[in-house]
Design goal:
Alpha-Beta Plaits, single chain, alpha+beta, 5 helices, about 260 residues
């Protein structure tokens, strides 16, 4: 029974996130239907983590076991033929039987993109946050450096009253605060890298961590934008972390600028 590791890229603009939801278009549900069409099997590919509505992926990872003996190259080609153009299987390879896209992950990298030009081209708008305020990249970088290390990131976790009621078997990651056996017992995460850089009119925030709470990356970005605008001093970021209160941090950045870039195992 082949066990597969799929690397998936998608434009999340038209999906209600990764996780399957009744009556709503999702990436996981679309992929499950494509697998059923090809193999006749009813399976639910498990992702490395949920991405929220409108969030994109360049390197989402999914795992699934199939009874069908279709070779990897044929299965990848068939999936990309059936899937909509907004979802691509970048790679597909056989994995050990104990490989699980979420449980086996060691670290994940997200990237957030901000467009600073006054008029954002419509071809770019679905993939950036268009911020027209003057932003200090130096201050934003100084603020971002303060989150590196192991901290309690409660201040950057979404206060979602429905989150605890989600199915405990669902994937967890950037937009989740659950563990495999129910609601998370801790908001402690380790951030290995947190940097900003500019390329023309675009600002890029890239962060690598052991895991991420619900909306954590978007809340970090919103806070750093407040820093860049001069509303919050870069040196106050440790105080925001220590407060362990969502009200201490900045606003939630919109979803369309966020990309899941890579998952390391």
């Amino acid at each position: 029974m082949p066990h597969w590791k799929l690397t998936v890229a998608y434009d999340g603009s038209s999906y209600n996130g990764w996780q399957i939801q009744p009556g709503l278009p999702t990436v996981q549900g679309t992929l499950a239907r494509a697998l059923h069409h090809i193999t006749g099997e009813i399976v639910l590919p498990q992702g490395s983590g949920r991405t929220d509505t409108g969030v994109h992926a360049l390197g989402q990872v999914a795992s699934v076991s199939l009874q069908s003996p279709i070779p990897a190259s044929n299965l990848q080609r068939a999936l990309n033929h059936i899937l909509p153009a907004s979802i691509r299987i970048v790679s597909l390879e056989e994995a050990p039987a104990d490989f699980h896209a979420r449980h086996s992950a060691r670290r994940k990298t997200y990237e957030y993109r901000i467009a600073t030009q006054p008029i954002c081209p419509p071809t770019l708008a679905p993939f950036v946050w268009n911020c027209t305020w003057p932003l200090s990249l130096t201050d934003m970088q100084q603020g971002a450096a303060h989150v590196i290390g192991t901290h309690d990131f409660t201040s950057f976790a979404a206060t979602d009253p429905d989150l605890a009621n989600r199915n405990a078997s669902d994937e967890s990651d950037e937009d989740d605060n659950t563990s495999s056996d129910g609601p998370a017992k801790t908001a402690i995460r380790t951030i290995f890298a947190s940097t900003w850089h500019r390329d023309g009119d675009l600002l890029f925030y890239r962060v690598t961590g052991s895991g991420f709470l619900h909306h954590m990356v978007r809340n970090l970005v919103g806070t750093f934008v407040d820093v860049g605008r001069g509303r919050t001093a870069p040196g106050l970021v440790p105080t925001i972390i220590a407060a362990r209160s969502r009200t201490a941090a900045g606003p939630t950045a919109p979803p369309q600028g966020l990309f899941l870039v890579e998952v390391d195992y």
